Records
---
Amino acid sequence: MDGLMMDQPLLLSGLLWRTERLFHDKKIITRVGQGQYHSYSYADYAKRVRRLASALVDFGVKPGDRVGTIAWNHYRHFETYFGVPGIGAVLHTINMRLFPEQQAYLINHAQDSVLMIDADQVSAVERLVEIGIPSVRAFVVMGEGPLPETSLEPVYSYDELVDSGTEDFQFPTFDENTASAMCYTSATTGDPKGVVYSHRAMVLQAMCLAMHDKLNMSESQVWLEVAPMFHCNGWNIPHTALLQGATLVLPGVHPTDGDYVEMVQDLGVTGMNGAVTIGTMMRDFVRASDRKWDLSSLKTMWLGGQAPSRAIMEWWERTFGTHVVQGYGMTECTPQICFNSTKSTLADQDPEAVYALRQTGGQPIPLMKIKVIGEDGTELPWDGTSVGDFWVQSPFTASEYYNDERTKESMVDGWFRTGDVGAINEHGYVIIKDRSKDLIKSGGEWISSIDLENALMAHPKVREATVVSVPHEKWLERPLACVVPSDDSITEDELRDYLLTSFAKWWIPDSFLFVSQVPKTSVGKYNKKEIRAIFADGGVSRVRERLA
Amino acid sequence: MDGLMMDQPLLLSGLLWRTERLFHDKKIITRVGQGQYHSYSYADYAKRVRRLASALVDFGVKPGDRVGTIAWNHYRHFETYFGVPGIGAVLHTINMRLFPEQQAYLINHAQDSVLMIDADQVSAVERLVEIGIPSVRAFVVMGEGPLPETSLEPVYSYDELVDSGTEDFQFPTFDENTASAMCYTSATTGDPKGVVYSHRAMVLQAMCLAMHDKLNMSESQVWLEVAPMFHCNGWNIPHTALLQGATLVLPGVHPTDGDYVEMVQDLGVTGMNGAVTIGTMMRDFVRASDRKWDLSSLKTMWLGGQAPSRAIMEWWERTFGTHVVQGYGMTECTPQICFNSTKSTLADQDPEAVYALRQTGGQPIPLMKIKVIGEDGTELPWDGTSVGDFWVQSPFTASEYYNDERTKESMVDGWFRTGDVGAINEHGYVIIKDRSKDLIKSGGEWISSIDLENALMAHPKVREATVVSVPHEKWLERPLACVVPSDDSITEDELRDYLLTSFAKWWIPDSFLFVSQVPKTSVGKYNKKEIRAIFADGGVSRVRERLA
């Protein structure tokens, strides 16, 4: 017996329908210069989104066509978030920080037909044309003022394109499983892999984020989206803000740490999300600044990519009353798998235990199923200590990679193998020990690089730390620590003694390299692959030299 | 181009999967006597739900079979909420307050194969068997102790049935459009009409309620479900509480106003939902009680069925800091259409304007579309004054009534005609003026019975008031007011003068009848149909006599 309910698909345009009627007076604010902001209402936003959609149809963009973007976080980029999927086309957000060859690979693999790029990306895209991106039949430049001089051909102004459309455009209705967006994620080996999102997945993910009381994305929030909008749809946060009618703040082109701090104070930002390094850099900026900053409007700082250290959590809480939260997500999951909040029944434990909980990836969000699989393929108990691979399943988890043979390595019996390793405790808190590719297997026993990193970063003289696996003759693998000190008086012995208070002797890294920077990936995570490659190239001394 | 996301259906068993893993230590508490409670964890709940599901399968209940319940709000009834739909069967909650003939009609129309009933309903159900309910092939009695003496045959003990099942039962996976539950709603004329919910509709509705920051159904809530669980799945609130891991409090059999008050104080209840009369009766109980009550734990009181008066809102806010909220829903919408919260941009108006907003039905919840249609069939603007019929569309709105010819009167072009009349303001707040069947059309102009009722109920000497349309020779229809005084010194002239300060002369009811009670429907709304019938039977004097 079927239910007798309307067959109404979950479409992104459905979210917009409500927002423009209920929250038309709420604002989207983009930083356009030092202390300068472009601000317009969701009503104006929705009109421009419909103009854009109508212009794209007139332009010949068909359902299923891929439209690429190479852009910063700003209102025009956000218009493409609803304008492109609204007509059944697919928004392909391209990572701005990749090398040209990698960007060209993505564009060719996705077969983008139109590229929408920021004005400051024009010369970089000219380079892509030289490499060869034959599927692209038009370039659209987003920015103020006249089109820059360029060899790109044909090239259009984004604002003129929008102006050519009609704001009366009606979004078509189609199946909710229609592709809405795509995003590539780096692979352990080989080229990046493409994930194709559906309208259903993105609407459901936004709803699951919206219902999280600790993220608290409600109408009254003023939310600063620092996470790049080219990465997993900006963690799906712009959609969630729009769904709830929150004020959305976008940092515009080339923002600095100081710009983030200034935006929070100027605009009374109440919540923000970004990579862990953003929280660290904002802290360092405030500490070093001559001005006295009041960031106490900021109640929620969601830091992602890796676990924020306890030191960072405590500094923000103590200094501005800001609650630092984290989650666990990946491109393949639209992106959240877990989100961390302290259950009311666990909040009355001693502070150490609460912090330990807060440093986990959190509990699976609604609709998300997770299990932990041991080396022998059996499901392990949720006891907080049994370590295995995390497998996940949900309506917003990828079922395959786009045109990619590697799908079969990641999908097993309807579950997605995350490639992450860890345990789950009895309350469903997911404790991530490592990416399986970053695991350190020393003398047959494994060592968690993440546990060591978290401990090192909690040391008062440490600013950043990463621990990687390097080859070893006797033990096969051993940990190597790269540490960015915040105090030059730090010594190797000091760190070794400090770690010995928490870890067994054989866990302690053989070398502690004091370096001035840890290489990061294009989305701000520690780039362990690069460190391992430098090590392979010349050992400890080469790493010390390259990261000096 | 399709998205490449997993085809994971939205099933009620999926919500349970998460709750029993993440919130297993949270509690479901049922009142079982004066100050006495049955309390068990979601872990124990989930085990019993799986035992129930397995036992029903063994019992021969097949996917699509209807399983009826006639029961109060308690943990056994709540077990059927997930146990029955979990195996693909359909939970048919039957209104306990209907006449036997009506209940028999529902059971026969739905073709219930099993009836699960409370022990205190046994003799009533024996009467149903006399009337004839041939589809029912087994009766299951929920309650403590041995089975009561009964002619029902075959009859089983619910607890024994549950004990016979296995807690290792695995819920099957099926299409999310599968029927999960059904509920009948009274019709203007003729028999009640059946609404068949799907798993998809109920999961989406629960998610939309969960993401509402003013309802604030979060993990830390202790939620008292007063709304009957036989009515629209208890407004879908039990599912939302389970989804979020909130503590759920159920008032058990034959609860009184004093029981509700006691439960709030005893258990530290933080939120509750029930008919408007519950809020009034609890207030009256507290006022009349010799004891001093502290209900300040109660932050949210959601009153439904009709609009709570400003007097009630103010009393709760002033006395206990309780925020009274309302929504707009109906059986056909699973059930919420709108929920009321004050937008941050409207909160700084003068208090009168904020109260006026709070007395509307609120804004459409996510995924819900609404429009207002004028007499000529055109869509009217959202200007707060253009009055027409509300039409709605959503994934949780009925597309048809179950086996019912009357579907065609209610469904137009993929929209459901609610039968309610009103306007929508520029921020999407839905201002309900009347049920179309309750509209008063006097001399070609219409009068809102709801506006008059709200005004009357704000008068300090009025406890309850309803206004109905009665036939009139010259004007065709005129308003008649039935008023339950809270102060016997009240006079007709006093009320007339009072209304004249807000309404045109021709809006003022011709008669004000002071009565001791207003008849209510089985779900606690004012029964205007009954008052009109009494009037038809003998005019004003007959109404005065019958409601004395």
---
Amino acid sequence: TKKKEVSYSNRGKSLEDDLNETNVFYLQQKLAIIHKKPVPIQIVKVDYPARSAAVIREAYFRTPSTTDYNGVYNGYYIDFEAKETDSKTSFPLKNIHPHQMEHMKSVLHQRGISFFIVRFSTLQRNFVVLYEIVERFYENMKNGGRKSIPFTFFETEAIEIHEGYLPRLDYLKAVDVLIADKAVCESEEK
Amino acid sequence: TKKKEVSYSNRGKSLEDDLNETNVFYLQQKLAIIHKKPVPIQIVKVDYPARSAAVIREAYFRTPSTTDYNGVYNGYYIDFEAKETDSKTSFPLKNIHPHQMEHMKSVLHQRGISFFIVRFSTLQRNFVVLYEIVERFYENMKNGGRKSIPFTFFETEAIEIHEGYLPRLDYLKAVDVLIADKAVCESEEK
Ligand SMILES: [Mg+2]
Ligand SMILES: [Mg+2]
């Protein structure tokens, strides 16, 4: 009966760990190819010891100019940013860098699928939300509006993803919904 | 009359430099969003000096598990590997890592556009060649066949890209041809 006690509770694991595990699963199952981009590093000094690997001795972290993850899923270019917040009531927009918003806008212009995965860590709830929706809040903030997106907005307007065993965080289900919605929008525009 | 002497000759510049410049141009002109992936680094030791930026004091280069470049172009997922050779007669397949081939095969399976940009440095000639074509040579090599792709094959079967001023290496023109060819193939398959 020990099996019944297995819990998929996720306390302590970071959103990034969960997404990386999920992406490995997607890759192995041939469902999608999505990778975390390495953090860009400015390398200043490298030693080349005889008979062993080069050692970086001085380097600095650079600010990423794009998003955390990108790749391809069934012909679609996928590009997203993962964000965690401890807040129980809202997602603070200051977590998003202006250059990330710019990058995501360009992705949209190239007809990629651009979204955020937002984890409310304390509440253990995860949501997928389209870039376009976050952009509305972001522009509104720049015009003096509120500096965060209410949790209640996520509950009613975003797509919730539930934690599981394999994959840990099956966000492609949400991406399917985004793609289906987009197809509807595009055909309505005609 | 000095202007007439301006040459777009590319001696000395690396293929990577040319592609990075080209990608900046594409980004600024809103033609495509394609980035070089940072080389993955294994960080072992970081110092956090008071009042200044974190300094990486020990780190190692890791072997990239994918390709050099990826991004999105007009709804298409683009994924490619850039390779240079000094040879005047053929492109040696040992330049390609098995994990790169695996990655590109997966990209194809997800309906992305996967290709190589090959520069014959000594000849100052550049070619775009679909992953699928390289795969034929690669598989043939694994079965005991020749270990390189003849330059004459590139001349007749690949798409040549010529160096220019802005952009340096307009490979999207070649990608347009690849996409058009694929569309023809797919409709013939039906
Ligand atoms: Mg993030
Ligand atoms: Mg390369």
---
Amino acid sequence: MAQTNGDAVPASPKAEFLSVESILEEHVPADKLAQVKGVLYGLNCGKPVAAVPLPAELTSAAAASGYDLQAYRFDAAPEQLRPPRIVRIGLVQNGIKAPTTAPYAEQREAIHQRVRELIDAAGAAGVQVLCLQEAWHMPFAFCTREKAWTEFAESVEGPSTRLCQELARKHNMVIVNPILERDEAHGQTIWNTAVVIGNNGNVIGKHRKNHIPRVGDFNESTYYMEGNTGHPVFETAFGKIAVNICYGRHHPMNWQGFGLNGAEIVFNPSATVGALSEPMWPIEARNAAIANSYYVGAINRVGTEVFPNAFTSGDGKPAHKDFGHFYGSSYVAAPDASRTPALARTLDGLMVADCDLNLCQQLKDKWGFRMTARYDMYAGQLARYVQHDFKPQVIRDPSLE
Amino acid sequence: MAQTNGDAVPASPKAEFLSVESILEEHVPADKLAQVKGVLYGLNCGKPVAAVPLPAELTSAAAASGYDLQAYRFDAAPEQLRPPRIVRIGLVQNGIKAPTTAPYAEQREAIHQRVRELIDAAGAAGVQVLCLQEAWHMPFAFCTREKAWTEFAESVEGPSTRLCQELARKHNMVIVNPILERDEAHGQTIWNTAVVIGNNGNVIGKHRKNHIPRVGDFNESTYYMEGNTGHPVFETAFGKIAVNICYGRHHPMNWQGFGLNGAEIVFNPSATVGALSEPMWPIEARNAAIANSYYVGAINRVGTEVFPNAFTSGDGKPAHKDFGHFYGSSYVAAPDASRTPALARTLDGLMVADCDLNLCQQLKDKWGFRMTARYDMYAGQLARYVQHDFKPQVIRDPSLE
């Protein structure tokens, strides 16, 4: 299976496997596999999440161009007073396409070219709402702590937005465009931002990443601060969407914030590596879909990015030039606890999913999480907790005195 | 493989399989299995979660008595200024042991006898903190909506507590005892309560279930209301523990509440059935362990319980006498996203796990979720949300007008 993140980029030092799903499909007999998948992937309307056929020219183009193309469908129960509200969403994961030593303009153009190809494929597949990965227009260079990489930062109206606007108009598609933003209105401040572009090509608005990591080589707080845009929900032609950027997925109240504002689909554009977070990846986005009764599109970067200068990682190990393997594995999780398989761990990819948005309210009514959430109790608890002299509610065993 | 929930109780109508793990172990080659488990079960200190050997007399007693006995170890990194703080915890899952048509005293005594056997085994295995499943002393009869079953309710000082006190003293063990509580001090009100018993046999305190389901046949709101005990953390001889009872696992802020008060281990005693919740089961407790940097012991009832009178389920299907299969599958999740395999789906069981509590603070420092949580922002959001005239933060695409 070809690595697709560019000949110029060395493969990961350890051999990476394609996907958990490909191993299970190869080795577990069909009847047993159905039992395993029933537990691990759930059921939608009582059945396994169904694959959707795509035109043969799309699947052969994907094979020829070396990216993983998968498509699935989430149904809802028929209702008497509402028609189905089926939205076709798309998730794009991609590696960088030129070595990090190439001129920046060339690096950006190489990624633009690949992403244009993938969005055009999504358009041909009828995708209506698409999300790209975090800071998709550049290498994820924050591991280096070098400030030169901030040249990649763009304004909300910059070249990556313009590309997405062109493609949004071309395909009548809402596009979520996560960029490294330079905020000219506030003295060239840098943010980690998702620009939401409507299906008519206009910028509807932006959301800035609420929670910023200081984990391992994710030195993002060296570059930008916590966002100041709250938890906006964007009402588009194809549903109410929101964006929980990367590390925000570890914060259940961040997911909840978008839910309280009415999101039906929340995208989680990410960039995360195997040794750090892979066991969390199938858990957090899915938990959010369950707890908040909405769809989640979880998107991760793919490939290994090698930087010009060696850097240390605060772990006592020798300086090195790469950050680990971005394991892709993008997937869609539904409010009924079902999910799609993951895209490949080692290939660019496009995940297509038909989502009946009626499922969101159906699950709210079935499980009643909003009704039973006791928000007033938690508003009080948090108001107390943020006081510096907060006293935890602890009952100490008196027999220990 | 023998069903252990009593000869008098019919097996589930559909054949139930033992566990996902047993299927994977049987069919997936070792090298591939390591890759799959690395993603699905995580790594602890860079290695698969290790099994711990138990004395041969314990494993042979478990086999002879038809329960699943498993033991694992979670390590933390060595520290210079703190010794390891290793606590051996135990989770017990069990079926009912007499038909639901038997006299209530006989039903309760039959369960007491089995649970005494399992706690004695835990004591022999050196377990220091043990938790039983939700309302373990009775069939989970709330599906029937019949009030007669409330006879099983007990005061906090009742017979099931007295059994646990005796065993706590005998084994120098903290025992979490989840009962259906009758509150004599408040006019015989019924609650769903966990009584926490110290290793000296004293009752340290109680916690009442914060969130009550109205889902499928879980007619619990017919019997009892939302708890009034907040999010207490119990400081025991072996660490700070808390109890998130059953449906509270679907509420991320409930998990968080115990974390804010300093819990190091949170038990989730549950009673839930396959068709309803099984795909959620591996997700929610584990997400809580990750997000709150504590251990979670997730415990589910096992077996199929058949009631004397047929009841309907609000789904248009004919009246029936059972509620579905309680799928067991109890497991321990660690703050580093690793977890144990699950206990069997069809057998009583005892899960033993050594948990180095130092791992909690180490993960807090590694991931910084507390530091980056922006509680003040969420305190404000919730205070606004609970107002009846709350206006969601929605940005509508102006081009749609």
---
Amino acid sequence: LIKTWEPNLIHYPLIGIEDEEFATSKKLITKQEVRAVTLAKLRIQDDLVMWDIGAGSGSVSIEASNLMPNGKVYALERNAQCLGFLRDNLKKFVARNVMLVEAFAPEGLEELPEPDRVFIGGSGGMLEEIIEAVDRRLKSEGVIVLNAVTLDTLTKSVEFLEDHGYTVEVTCVNISRTRGLTEYKMFEAHNPVYIVAAWKESE
Amino acid sequence: LIKTWEPNLIHYPLIGIEDEEFATSKKLITKQEVRAVTLAKLRIQDDLVMWDIGAGSGSVSIEASNLMPNGKVYALERNAQCLGFLRDNLKKFVARNVMLVEAFAPEGLEELPEPDRVFIGGSGGMLEEIIEAVDRRLKSEGVIVLNAVTLDTLTKSVEFLEDHGYTVEVTCVNISRTRGLTEYKMFEAHNPVYIVAAWKESE
Amino acid sequence: LIKTWEPNLIHYPLIGIEDEEFATSKKLITKQEVRAVTLAKLRIQDDLVMWDIGAGSGSVSIEASNLMPNGKVYALERNAQCLGFLRDNLKKFVARNVMLVEAFAPEGLEELPEPDRVFIGGSGGMLEEIIEAVDRRLKSEGVIVLNAVTLDTLTKSVEFLEDHGYTVEVTCVNISRTRGLTEYKMFEAHNPVYIVAAWKESE
Amino acid sequence: LIKTWEPNLIHYPLIGIEDEEFATSKKLITKQEVRAVTLAKLRIQDDLVMWDIGAGSGSVSIEASNLMPNGKVYALERNAQCLGFLRDNLKKFVARNVMLVEAFAPEGLEELPEPDRVFIGGSGGMLEEIIEAVDRRLKSEGVIVLNAVTLDTLTKSVEFLEDHGYTVEVTCVNISRTRGLTEYKMFEAHNPVYIVAAWKESE
């Protein structure tokens, strides 16, 4: 009798996984609440192809893949520390349909299947080149979502996306929360995140 | 040859459905971004039993059910106008595992299966009674989530939940967004929503 | 015995005047809370010269002049409706050191005394020209403050100001408030305002 | 020839003093933007009597006194570290009409002149007693303002003030700002502050 290892996923939700559950460095992770809004903006369906460019510790890829049992997520990352976190997290959350791609975007994008959805979590200073490369491959009715925490990224991403013919919506998410376990409840703010969503209007 | 009616769900995402897609009155709906964070706080898994108390137009029930193909959502509502919206929306989004329950909570709760998750979208002035009734039935490791838009509901829900032994976390969600189609992008704010999440610490 | 008319200012504070006290159209006014932060960013002192470009209904000019009994505020405006509001408000709040200048900026700026402070409340599509004209006249250690409610104005103002050698700080102000007189207190959000403050670092 | 020491106030604005200019510990200070809105809510006039209860490092007292050359501010504080900061700041900003009162409120309030305005920056666990003591002495048409950063203080202050017959307005201030001197502008959030303003409706 062979007892194969079986992951116990009973404690993890599909979305809303606690930030602390991910192997990560504190500044790297897309926080729980922003991740949820990001996934909403990505308009996930069951069987899509998604690219996660600058996947960081993989929290967006993992929750997206939980929503797409018949889909495929390609998580691009090249930072060595992030790759370590990513591998740990993909294993921990048994993210079978996330493919880890070691590449510094836009390198590596040409080889991937055409995406329905693209999430840009980090651009490593190559934002314009990445948007160009994505635009060449994105399927019609595709959606690009990008999270900006600086004014510069916000400004440039909107400019580049509009230059390539996209309709752009910006959502600013301000979250503050109390900590459940302290006796008195102080509201602590997260830094605001600008979620840029872009698509091409069909004619 | 018989062509049976087949819903075309191709355009609807699992979560992140546009507010405009729902039959509703403007003030009633839990907006897209807040809905996403609410679902994250509900810690949805594939096969849970959820109660949606004061289901309104049903947007939370519908997206929750999209995440729980093997679960069951009981949507309680008694307002006649809401019931109309709810029926239209359940049909439009083919929400097969949402059960509509015509009742004014806490009435009707006793007859339902024990819930893993409870979302309180509206309480009709019966907040304390509802929390008591929920507390009697909630499974261990269950989670209650409540959305408050007034200071009074925020204050009372935290008080009642703590009185019943729950650990409470409050998340304030402030969203502003630009409209995609206008030429110049003005940030428009939604009213803040306080998402109260409560659970009992296991000993 | 002659009793001359004497304004009763007893009910008006120096800053924090209620929005409803101003003759204005609803969309025009810089709201009470944002006005206060704007004045803080303007670093008002007792005896400065300030330009208020696109003065609208004059609320910023009036409160600034309350803080500068020995200073002078030049309020530029050309819109006929605004001019009516402005005149009414200057009279109502007895703003003796506010000079109304009927001009469409940058026209009219050359004739004014050099400013220590410039507030740009509206630019009428002439933002770059206004910033150029202001930059030619602003005293050393001067401060420019601009309120942006659209992404486009935010982006362009930062770009133009940095191009002219200014250090720029952006403050995003999100305000929500309950109404004092209703029985239950619902938080209502104002649209966010981006307060852009700019100055030249002394060498 | 005797050259007396003369403070150089040329660089300090009346309101909007940079947080870094105050002797303080980081968590103690009411931040610049929140201070401005707090002063607006206090409805300051030229010649009022104000109590600042739990004055901390004195930033609110100092800016309030800048707006009231003919008024008087009584700053109550008993924490030794705060008293050191307070003394340094009153000297630095030449706040001649701020009276430092070493007392742990509500102790010490009975001896003070009746206030037109009361700011409660800290209550040391004596919130109810302080509100009672203030209520006994506040002049008619007086205003109480309190800054809450925890849900508990927010809830209790509204409850106590309403119990004493006050009309209460709550303003939630969410501020994020970029740092002027960094190359790329990241928005950093301050924790939200709830400004509770209370007054009695005249009959």
